[in-house]
Fold this protein.
Amino acid sequence: MIYKMLALNVEGTLLQDNGRISRSTKEAVDYAGGKGISVTLITSKSFEYAHRVAKMLKLNSSLITHQGAFIASKPDKPIFVRRINEEITLDLVRFLEGFQAQIKLVSENFTLGNKVKQPNKLIGRVIYQTSNPFSYAEQYVDALSEKLGQKPVSPPKIEVTFLRDQDVQDAKKAISNMFHEVDCIVCGKGKLDIVPAGVSKFRGLLYVCDRMNIRREEVVVIGSDTDDLPLIEWAGLGVAMGNAPLKVKNASDWVTRSNNENGVSYMVKEHFRKQQPIDFLKKMKLIK
């Protein structure tokens, strides 16, 4: 099969556990691009986060960010954007303030969150981590709902980190019953992403492929987490990282090495080295 697109998850896939991208991975992405394969990034995180990773990889493609709610190559020119409206955002925040949780309203330009007083210093460090090299403008306030009452916000995504793991499913069930305008995506231990209804990484990739006239069987997806599962199952070639959960590995067509063992690089070299450049294949009329 001839592949025209390589869609890569960022965290746990491109990035090693230390938050860096290895030279081997950079070279592999450049190698795929040099063959005319469109490379795009898919992430639950903000556009700014993905954009900085893309710059390191010298990519200028449309990035699927905020769980698919914001797709763009430049922040001021999105090709697709869905937001949670201001009123629903405020109502959700008021509900979530009833839990012990870090609540973040994640926009393409900034993050607005609540301060959480927690005696356990370890939990505090996890929630307030600011050493991430991909961080951008962030503000934390004592009373988030009060701040929104003064200045409403309509974010593409609300990110919630619960201090008690059992609260995730309780909050998800309650939100699903009360708010038909949003969907909830469990994306890690104690973590919940809230996005506009109908939004997902999967639908974001479908949107980009449709715009580029790329068929399902021409797409390679490499992912590492449970929210990558629908993409891996759909793709012409679905690849799971070696560090992915067993459920994701079982659903994939191929399992590569882990993110700390240059899994992306290994996969690209194994599967793309025999494929001729796209322009050559078009010239020879082997593809359209």
